[in-house]
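Subgroup meeting minutes
Present: P.N., E.W., G.H.
Scribe: E.W.

1. P.N. recapped why we're keeping a running log of single-chain structure predictions: easier to compare across weeks, and new members can see raw inputs and outputs side by side.
2. G.H. added today's entry (170 aa).
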Amino acid sequence: MDYKVVYSKRKTVSLKVTHEGLVVHAPFGVGRDALDGIVEKHAAWVEKTKERVKKEHSFWDSVGEDGIEELRALAREVLTKKTERYSNIMGLKYGRITITSAKTRFGSCSSRGDISYSYRLMAYPDRAVDYVVVHELCHLVHMNHSKDFYALLERILPDYKERRALLKQK
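Output recorded in log:
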């Protein structure tokens, strides 16, 4: 299996599938034979992930620039309303909302309370979008993924695991 290797000061090997192929991130000193073994061990995952990435890439290519701008506008409107709604339910105050083009992260929350969402969320079911909004608002209380964080998330969305699973279906 062909792959690109990126060596750096790290302690572990990681595999990442992009629309251009497999990239292996490895610590300095790890030989090609060892990496070949790791890649071979995870071959089924790599192939499955390549198919998923190929579908996602072709979907976003088909949307085009005009479609992306429409999705950005929709995201700003929908995510602002949802954030306002859930922040009122949870009794929380947030900072600014930013819409990004992030491909691997649906949302993030800064220590100042600013929340960023990817416009790509608009391609997912409403229940999944609500999950991301509540997830980010929970970070206003717990800036980690501790038991307390998930307890708060579950109080607001008892079915959060099913909602989160919807994000993995594309």
